[in-house]
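Quick one: structure for this chain?
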Amino acid sequence: MLNCGLRAVMALIGAAALVIKRSALLPLLAYDGMAELLPLLILGGLCFTAAMVLISAPSVSLEGKNLWIAQSLPVETREILRAKLRLHNLVGVPPILIASAVVAAALGLRGITLVCMLALPAAVCVFSGLLGLAENLRHPNFDWINETQAVKSGLGVLFTMLIGWGIMAVPVLCIVFFGAVLSPPLICAGFLLLLLALCALLYRWLMTRGAGIYRSL
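Got it. Here's what it folds into:
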């Protein structure tokens, strides 16, 4: 939790700070362009925070030499993987959703910007959970002495972070190059649809090939 879930708590702290400092931020919205830029900056920060919630990324490695216990349980392998995903979402999604709702209420957001503020960080967190479990299945690390090594030294955790950061660059680059043609909220909405599609593909992979990899570890 300290290494992989603390960012969810930081999202709540950041949202509380925004409420406390709301009176200092609202005058900024009067400046030209800030009414659109400020929510995007905060949305980017929330998405980056959500991408850093990595509860599922070391979840297979942490089983270590006791992996056989989970493999021998009288349940389908897919249920074991779903349990790991549920834990990730339980830790990460509610705080991210609360922080997003607080930001939306504090800034008085509406329309597409409101939808993106509420849905996009949560979608990033779900994507991070699916990606983390997939990468840990592909790059498990069972040669650890204590749990900290499994969390900090695993390739699955590293690749999840790097891919997550790379994904976050997609909407930024689209805004930079196509912001004059498409509105940033519309680009964010398109990115949300892309994330949902990737989540569906990753979930399908986990429930088919991923389950087979888990059984063969």
